[in-house]
């Protein structure tokens, strides 16, 4: 497992491993990269393609952006509020094999206005429900201004995230990607839940 992580980092010419909770608090959760095996399953789902632009909330050092833009040829934007971790993402961009399809923004997620080309969003528990509500409001705003198919991917969602998402009127459950077989144990959270923004 760890060997796979190192190999992909090396291949993509980036450094994204390790957890960082130096600036975590009750609203913003620690940086922890999504395992490459999970991203591989997402890339193979066919739901992210060359003509998509994916926004990664709480991008950290940019692993999701670099990997998915390499594997699917999509464009990616990573949002990160922690200046020090954001620095890591921009340094990675200089060496990354797919750096030209990736951009990073230093901003808090709730203040970031979605560009009209964004039609895929990825979340790996980056922040609290309060912030999630503000972020969803921004996504809906962008959708109303420029209607298009927008899919939201939630990896390893908490119970509170799920109950919030299931009660959002502008979201429809779209599909689920099971990732539980990739890790030992029976972890019910080990999945990617997908929602579509609707009118």
From TrEMBL:
<dbReference type="InterPro" id="IPR029063">
    <property type="entry name" value="SAM-dependent_MTases_sf"/>
</dbReference>
<dbReference type="GO" id="GO:0008168">
    <property type="term" value="F:methyltransferase activity"/>
</dbReference>
<keyword id="KW-0489">Methyltransferase</keyword>
<protein>
    <submittedName>
        <fullName>SAM-dependent methyltransferase</fullName>
    </submittedName>
</protein>
<dbReference type="InterPro" id="IPR025714">
    <property type="entry name" value="Methyltranfer_dom"/>
</dbReference>
<keyword id="KW-0808">Transferase</keyword>
<dbReference type="Pfam" id="PF13847">
    <property type="entry name" value="Methyltransf_31"/>
</dbReference>
<feature type="domain" description="Methyltransferase">
    <location>
        <begin position="49"/>
        <end position="114"/>
    </location>
</feature>
<dbReference type="GO" id="GO:0032259">
    <property type="term" value="P:methylation"/>
</dbReference>
């Amino acid at each position: 497992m760890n060997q796979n992580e190192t190999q992909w980092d090396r291949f993509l010419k980036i450094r994204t491993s390790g957890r960082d909770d130096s600036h975590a608090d009750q609203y913003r959760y620690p940086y922890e990269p999504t395992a490459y095996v999970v991203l591989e399953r997402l890339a193979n789902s066919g739901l992210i393609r060359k003509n998509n632009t994916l926004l990664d909330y709480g991008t950290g050092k940019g692993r999701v952006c670099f990997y998915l833009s390499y594997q699917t040829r999509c464009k990616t934007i990573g949002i990160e509020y922690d200046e020090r971790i954001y620095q890591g993402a921009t340094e990675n961009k200089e060496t990354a094999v797919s750096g030209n399809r990736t951009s990073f923004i230093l901003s808090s997620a709730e203040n970031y206005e979605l560009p009209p080309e964004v039609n895929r969003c990825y979340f790996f528990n980056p922040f609290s429900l309060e912030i999630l509500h503000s972020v969803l409001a921004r996504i809906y705003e962008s959708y109303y201004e420029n209607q298009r198919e927008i899919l939201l991917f939630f990896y390893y969602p908490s119970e509170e995230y799920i109950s919030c998402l299931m009660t959002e009127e502008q979201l429809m459950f779209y599909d689920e990607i099971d990732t539980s077989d990739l890790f030992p144990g029976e972890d019910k959270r080990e999945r990617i839940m997908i929602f579509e923004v609707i009118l």
